[in-house]
Amino acid sequence: MTSPKLAVVGHPNKGKSSIVSTLVRQDAVAVSELSGTTTQSQSFSMMVDGKELYQLVDTPGFQRPRQVLEILQAQTQDASQRRQTVQAFLHQYAPDGNHKFKDEAELLEPIVNGAGIVYVVDGSVPYSPEYEAEMTILQWTGQPRMALINPIGGEHYVEQWQAALSQFFSVVRVFNPMTADGDKQRQILSAFAELHEPWRTSLEQAQQLLAFHLNDLQRQGGQMIAEALQQMAQYQSKLPIVSEHVDSAAKYGLRHQYEAGIRSQEKQMQQHVCELYSHHQLQLENETLEVDYPDLFDRKSWYLFGLDRTKLVGLAASAGAAAGVAIDVGVGGSSLMAGAVAGGVLSGAATLYATLKPERLKLKGMPLGGQQLVAGPIKDISFLFVLFGRAVELLAQVSRKTHADRRVVVVSGLDFSERFNQLSKVDQVKLTRLLQRLHKGLSFEETERLKRYIIDLVAFDKPD
Amino acid sequence: MQTSVSESLSFFYRFGASRALFTWLQFRVFLSDSGWQSRLPEDCRQPGLTVRDTLQNWSDHSAEAELHSLIWVILNIIALLAGSGAMIGALSYSGHEPVNLWLIFGLFAVLPLLLTLFAALGSLLQRSYRSAHSGRVGLVVKVLRLPEQWLPYSRLMVSWSLWQSQSLALLFNVGALAGFFLVALFRDISFGWSSTLIEDTATMVSFFKLFTAPWNMLVSLPADETISATRFFQNQGISVASAGRVWWPTVVMAVLFYGVLPRLLLQQWLAARFRKALSNDISNSGEVERFLNGCQRVTTEAAAAVNEAVAEEQGTKTISVGSKDYCLIGWQNALQNKAVVYQLGLNSWQQDVQWVEETAATVQQPIVIVVDARQTPTGELADCIELMQAQGHSVSVGLLPEVNGDTNSGALRSWQYFVHQHTLEMLKVTELQHD
């Protein structure tokens, strides 16, 4: 079964593209404050799980409705011929032809081919008879149609519009594509379903799928942030050092390297969250993330394969024990596992001694260990709260932003404390403990809890 | 379950769990690059594709990282051979004495059981999200020659390596069992037990009863007399040589029940845990959703090109409504019922054309079409202006600001764009004078 298709039509610059963008959840729909930027009809599909729920056609605005109406009226004898007259008009003035009714042809073609009509008007400007020609033409097509009042600059004339539009359209709704949340979008789908009986089932299913989809996005966004926070909290920058004295320039350089690394990880997380919500072109403005914390630096030894000393000794002891087992087997077990024990102890002890001064460890001149200056992970809880707060605020903003809203998103964790205070005291303590453990890595269960906190915090309304 | 989740799971798991991990990590690495959308194969953007087909198209164009099969085969063979070798060695070293049951039970039943329990405990305590710099994962990546870009996803690698290490240990135990049968097939093996401290046979009978309890429904323990008869002393052998043969089913069951089965259970549990972690990652990480969003993204090039057009800022001359220097004509609602000679756009098109051709032709002053800043320019306005220009009139557009005196920047830019397109002058209309 083909999915419902609706052409979004109206006067130029009344927010048709914005409505399409919000309802198909794609920011690829070009939205411009310049009038007449949409010159060709373009179809956009609302996809969930690879399934097309419905199609919306973004169309150019009416440019010469009175002239078109006069042409149509001149060719029609009675009401029964109106639809055929519109078709004949399109035959005469094809969308790809070179004539002055190109915009009208572009917007009428999908309607004549079966698309429903969504007529868009601006609720902030008064109704005037000039729109009647447009509405009459749409009426002549005989297609199911509804009107959306887009309060671009306010709702001053909404009632006036409702009175006028209800004479031409069976369904009239107010819809602001810049602020419409998921519920509002589903209400519009419900209105679409009222238009045409054959669409009802698929559009009701679309409403359900959209609700599930939005829940999934929130869950996945929470998971994405929970994962990214752990990676950021465990992030380290390292600098090999050769002498006992570490100069401030080295520390300065390493701090910058660490700072750049953390910021890059945060930026990547932000990009992923935006892409998850199909905000591919969203512009973010990050307030600077400071990493100047007292516990930033540590001096550590490093060994082959990045193992620490304990692990290296453990590994060597295991290898020694394994070799000893081979001897035990060779002597038929009469050694009573003494080979394994001796192999383990000897190998472990030798490694313990060899790693006392790691900088001396070399294999064919290649160092196997040494000293290094390590920046991070920062265990300071205030830093972890800053990271967490910024991530939650980003998710809250991106998840609520409609695809028509192209304004820059400012990322800062400044307001996070107000959101955090909406949690119960017990949950505040539990969340703090989780954050304190971030740098060690969380178990699946802990990660799941962190994800739930993120989702709960995002769901809280931001206090004014 | 959502369609996209079930389809993506079936795609990633199509060649088993290990391949699923490698394909998934390769997929995540692909998506971690900020410019991944530009590297997306065109096949993935085809409309009407299912989730699975889209992922398949991506997979067809990406160099899929595989576990270095030779290394993996060698590791498996080593585990199998080590198990067989250990068992053959243990069974072969007997000299003139029977094979000591303590040795076989110790090496292939008790020790594997202890190691299995130790591994199970370690697995339980294992934290899922380990540092990307985790040494063990780094080692696994190096030894198996896997891509280093996978290191940030070490939590899955840890889970997978725990599962695989138990698979190798299981192979060791299976190898031991195979080694036993190999030797038993070609040699007569006599088992016995010996002890310096245990004098009482009854103690040994009790011990064996307890030890063989898990399988005594399947294979019964040798009789008390046989247990007693298979005790041997140094350099003496057992009293009834044939009695030693009755132990072999008990030895096999001991290896099976204490060596193989617990290891198999642990391996299966870790496999299930790994699959759960991987499936959870595929379902909840949002990566598939991100990928599909990128594939389904449509570009609006034609419109974007116009959008780029910069409306030129014009020096706006101001005129008052009552000015006698200009002939003011209203467009649609602008200055309705006020000082304009005619209101275009409100009647039929023919009436407007007729007025322009008959009345406007007599106008002497330059014409200013007064428009409301809240309106948007249309083709019909351009047509009216063209008609007047054809009569030799100088026509400008007079912008009437909104009630509060401001003009919405979008509307202003639209009008600027319009006058720029039609090579007109734009004026600002002020000082409203009512009739």
Tag the structure with descriptive keywords.
heterodimer, A: 464 residues, alpha/beta, Rossmann fold, 3 domains, 6-stranded mixed beta sheet, 15 helices, B: 435 residues, 2 domains, 6-stranded parallel beta sheet, 8 strands, 8% strand
Protein model, in words:
The complex is a heterodimer of chains A (464) and B (435). Chain A has 15 helices and 13 strands. Chain A has 464 residues and is an alpha/beta fold. The two termini of chain A are 47 Å apart. The mean pLDDT of chain A is 87. Chains A and B meet through strand 2, strand 3, helix 2, helix 8 and helix 9 of A and helix 1, helix 4, helix 5, helix 6 and helix 10 of B. Chain A: Residues 6-91 form the G domain.
Rg of Cα set of chain B: 44 Å
Total tally of structural domains of chain A: 3
Uncertain residue ranges of chain B: 301-312
The domain count of chain B comes to: 2
End-to-end separation of chain A: 47 Å
CATH architecture of the largest domain in chain A: 3-Layer(aba) Sandwich
* Quaternary organization: heterodimer
Round the mean pLDDT of chain B to the nearest integer and report it.
82
Q: CATH homologous superfamily name of the largest domain in chain A?
A: P-loop containing nucleotide triphosphate hydrolases
| Separation, N- and C-terminal Cα atoms of chain B | 70 Å
Residues in β-strands, percent of chain B: 5-15%
Kindly state the mean pLDDT of chain A as a whole number? 87
Order of helices and strands of chain A: EHEEHHHEHEHEHHEHEEHHEEEHEHHH
Helical percentage of chain A: 40-55%
Structural class of chain B comes to alpha/beta
Low-confidence stretches of chain A: none
Spatial arrangement of strands, main beta sheet of chain B? 3-8-7-6-4-5
What do we call the CATH topology of the largest domain in chain A?
A: Rossmann fold
Spatial ordering of strands, largest sheet of chain A: 2-3-1-4-5-6
Pfam family, one (chain A): MMR_HSR1
Domain G (chain A): 6-91
Protein name (chain A): Small GTP-binding protein
GO molecular function (chain A): GTP binding
